[in-house]
Specification:
With 201 residues, this protein is α/β, with parallel strands linked by helices. 28% of the residues lie in helices and 26% in strands. Strands 2-3-4-1-5-6-7 form a seven-stranded mixed β-sheet, sandwiched between helices.
Length: 201
């Protein structure tokens, strides 16, 4: 099957399109993750860090980072011929959080990327999605120089509900990121099914 075309007389498949957010702290790998899987050239809104932003841009632990997302990252991936994901990477710095409400409109679910060296940086994203009942999972981006911890230790450190998946991943690796995307779609579907069952009972 060629995407968007019929094969041997079969009607073309009209794919379902879903919106997934990629959130987390500054320098955690959101732009890298979107770029690793996007089948189109990702839209990036990065600007160079400047001396003027030094008082508000905490680069501790990510000293080699020289750019920051100021609006969003955008990419697209076809998981199956009938399922397309649109990925929206949120800005990680507090002064750009006002954009989150607009970006989260209509989102099926979210990935919260975490760096175990700066785990507190993802607290705000976790709180945001919990307050709005947007299903999310934690993707622990396994940086080479970062210590590895069991997922249950990460869960306890973030005070997560047992239903929230915690997955280890490499934001640079396409297959690893695809596993996380499949995980968040499945979790969001389970979350929605559970909510519907609660309403009917």
């Amino acid at each position: 099957m060629i995407f968007g075309r019929s094969e041997r007389g079969k009607p073309p498949v009209e794919p379902v399109t879903l919106k997934i957010l990629v959130a987390g702290g500054f320098g955690v790998g959101k732009t890298t993750l979107v770029g690793a899987v996007s089948e189109i050239r990702p839209l990036r809104t990065e600007e160079f860090l400047t001396e003027a932003g030094r008082p508000v841009d905490d680069t501790t632990g990510v000293e080699r980072k020289h750019t920051t997302t100021v609006a969003m990252d955008f990419g697209r991936i076809t998981l199956r011929e009938d399922l397309v994901l649109y990925l929206f990477g949120t800005p990680g710095q507090e002064r750009f959080w006002f954009m989150w409400d607009e970006l989260s409109e209509g989102a099926l679910g979210a990935i919260v990327l975490a760096d175990t060296r700066r785990l507190e940086d993802c607290f705000a994203a976790v709180d945001y999605f919990e307050r709005r009942s947007i299903p999310f999972l934690i993707g622990v981006n396994c940086f080479e120089e970062a210590a590895r911890y069991p997922v249950e230790d990460v869960r306890r450190a973030l005070d997560l509900d047992e239903a929230v998946p915690v997955l280890l991943c490499d934001a640079r690796d396409r297959s690893s990121v695809k596993e996380v995307l499949v995980g968040v779609v499945q979790h969001a579907m389970d979350h929605d099914a559970g909510r519907r069952q609660t309403v009917t009972t």
